[in-house]
Hints:
By secondary structure, the protein is an alpha+beta fold.
Amino acid sequence: xxxxxxxxxxxxxxxxxxxxxxxxxxxxxxxxxxxxxxxxxxxxxxxxxxxxxxxxxxxxxxxxxxxxxxxxxxxxxxxxxxxxxxxxxxxxxxxxxxxxxxxxxxxxxxxxxxxxxxxxxxxxxxxxxxxxxxxxxxxxxxxxxxxxxxxxxxxxxxxxxxxxxxxxxxxxxxxxxxxxxxxxxxxxxxxxxxxxxxxxxxxxxxxxxxxxxxxxxxxxxxxxx
Length: 225
């Protein structure tokens, strides 16, 4: 009799444990559902990308450059004289350019032979030194020049060589020219030039045939169009 009672009690205890376990699982499943819903509503990585409006810079396409310049030209045997002129350049590529130049000086000074020896060089009324030439140039070492902390300007050194004609002492002489310069772009359309050039030609003005070197230093302001 007692064994039956123990058996019934064991069965009742087992049934109670089974019912308790079943109820716990159902409650656990219900408690996880809201967490899963919360995770589903807020993903770890947001696929939406905020796009910024970007305005690309306008690239200038001006290939022509006109320059007015003033400076000093040392005419061999005739001292240093002021010179004024103009240049027109065509920029073939970013580095290569072609240039035409036209300029003249004021009346050149007298030589020591004219002053001391009263020697007549037959200049007549025109003592100006005039020249024109065509040159090919190349930009070297492009970079920037900084003025203060907030201002930077594009710049470049350049070299060039060409040939043309010089009119002096009532004669036209074939002339070679060599030189270089430094350009600073003040704006997209305006540039500042510092140039040094040598003009070579053969003459016999002083009574002997020789090749003269005529060094020129100029400051110019240019406009791109």
